Amino acid sequence: MSRILAVTNQKGGVGKTTTSVNLAAGLAQSGMRVLLVDLDPQGNATMGSGVDKRTLKISVYQVLLGLATAESARQKSESGGYDLIPANRDLAGAEVELVDLEHRESRLKGALRTLVDQYDFVLLDCPPALNLLTLNALVAAHAVMIPMQCEYYALEGLSDLVNTIKKVRQSLNPKLDIEGLLRTMYDPRNTLAQQVSAQLQEHFGDKVYATVIPRNVRLAEAPSYGAPAVKLDRECKGSQAYVELVGEILSRNGLSAAVAQ
Description:
Elements: E1 3-7, H1 16-29, E2 34-38, H2 44-48, H3 60-64, H4 70-73, E3 75-77, E4 82-85, H5 94-98, H6 107-112, E5 121-125, H7 132-140, E6 143-149, H8 152-171, E7 177-186, H9 191-204, E8 208-214, H10 217-221, H11 229-232, H12 237-252
Parallel strand pairs: 1-5, 1-6, 2-4, 2-5, 6-7, 7-8
Antiparallel strand pairs: 3-4
């Protein structure tokens, strides 16, 4: 059965797209069938997957508005080894256009229904906002992965996100759960980072992934090559951390590497 994960945090610059792209590639390397859906108008996951957002004829924008099927928008990320439904700036206008449409919160869920059984994991890379695009992801997802930096403002934003998840669970998606909290850009020499990390573990327990993603230059460089870091330089510390995360996620979901269930 497919597992749909929304990778989200309304705070920008916390590593959502880096996580989405490297997790997709890492899962694909482990033998999983993976689909990545870019829901951010910036299209960074699209470019980071080696697909030029400027040349797209069909994107997730047309899919959400019912102008194209998810199948017709799907592309192969040759550099990542997974499938991708790409995004570009057109998506910025989708939120306004979605407002007047029926079932506006569940357009993505409906569009993916015909595809989802073809994959072991579907990852939804959300924009840095609690908007209608993110809401579509939360309605479509089985669970939420929250990448976050260990800093003071991150805790405040996390509280807002958890409340949003509760509201979505009450009214639109009763099965929505928090898959896990991922500590990103982590510097163990930073005392505040240590304190926030300890608070997260105290409040969320085993919802906090054991894997920690460090600050790493190769992770930041990889998008300029149009490839996930785990494919570009598997030996760097950042890539190794994402490989560990893949193992942890597979274990949590009762799967083993190279055996797609």
